[in-house]
């Protein structure tokens, strides 16, 4: 795709949507100021997006519309692979007696599709559900499996922003961490995205070695010891995730 194929009008609409999300609702004046656009231009985009259900007005503010929820459910359910992953999120939560997640990489970010803290897996409801790969266990586990050129692309695009005092912020540090992940077979997120949360994660892959996504087990730092993070959690993940991979094959889903 060449630069001439880009549609600036579409890009502006997308910028309006992303800014409304970032600001958790915004007036046309706020959007115009943030995006450095005229209010008349912003109104045109809001009118079109509102007509199709992608934004809704709440007094003077505009918020994202419920149409996105419908689309999100379609994306989550479009693949039987992801539906099966939800079943194994429950298994991991039950066996660890902690929280479990399943997420995928998309456009160099991690999207969590399912999470569970008990006997049922639900669509992820967390507010920040489009995470930087270098801050998450799933993201780092996937990065460790990618060619260096692809890692370069992701880091060049998104950078290595700091979310907590523990976040990796240098490429040298990230490369060293990815080497450790390959050596031990699992990744950790030790309060790197959220203070007080310790996470272990592994990738799930198809028989050809292509990454499908990643599973995690996590818990609060006040309760999760190093032996949990580096032994119990990885042991559970490395026992259960191969069962998921095997069932994908047995059901003919790959």
Automatic annotation (TrEMBL):
Keyword Transcription: yes
Domain IclR-ED intervals: 67-250
Entry-linked InterPro entries: GAF-like_dom_sf, HTH_MetabolicPath_Reg, Tscrpt_reg_IclR_C, Tscrpt_reg_IclR_N, WH-like_DNA-bd_sf, WH_DNA-bd_sf
Gene Ontology molecular function: DNA binding; DNA-binding transcription factor activity
Entries under PROSITE patterns matching the protein: HTH_ICLR (PS51077), ICLR_ED (PS51078)
Boundaries of every HTH iclR-type domain copy: 7-66
UniProt keyword list: DNA-binding, Transcription, Transcription regulation
Pfam families: HTH_IclR, IclR_C
GO biological process terms on file: negative regulation of DNA-templated transcription
Protein name, UniProt field: IclR family transcriptional regulator
Organism: Salinadaptatus halalkaliphilus
């Amino acid at each position: 795709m060449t630069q001439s194929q880009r549609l600036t009008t579409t890009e502006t609409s997308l910028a309006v949507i992303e800014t409304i999300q970032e600001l958790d609702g915004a007036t046309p004046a706020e959007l115009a100021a943030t995006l450095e656009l005229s209010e008349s231009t912003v109104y045109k985009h809001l009118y079109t997006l509102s007509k199709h259900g992608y934004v809704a007005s709440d007094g003077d503010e505009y918020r994202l519309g419920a149409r996105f929820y419908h689309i999100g459910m379609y994306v989550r359910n479009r693949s039987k692979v992801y539906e099966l992953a939800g079943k194994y999120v429950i298994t991991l939560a039950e066996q660890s007696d902690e929280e479990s997640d399943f997420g995928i990489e998309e456009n160099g970010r991690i999207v969590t599709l399912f999470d569970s803290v008990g006997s049922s897996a639900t669509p992820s409801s967390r507010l920040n559900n489009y995470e930087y790969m270098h801050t998450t266990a799933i993201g780092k586990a996937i990065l460790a499996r990618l060619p260096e050129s692809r890692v370069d692309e992701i880091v060049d695009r998104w950078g290595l922003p700091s979310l907590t005092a523990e976040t990796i912020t240098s490429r040298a540090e990230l490369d060293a961490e990815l080497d450790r992940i390959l050596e031990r077979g699992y990744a950790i997120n030790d309060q790197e995205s959220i203070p007080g949360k310790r996470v272990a994660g592994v990738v799930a892959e198809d028989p050809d070695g292509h990454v499908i996504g990643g599973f995690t087990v996590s818990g609060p730092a006040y309760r999760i010891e190093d032996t949990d993070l580096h032994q119990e959690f990885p042991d559970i993940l490395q026992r259960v995730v191969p069962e998921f991979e095997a069932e994908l094959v047995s059901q003919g889903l790959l």
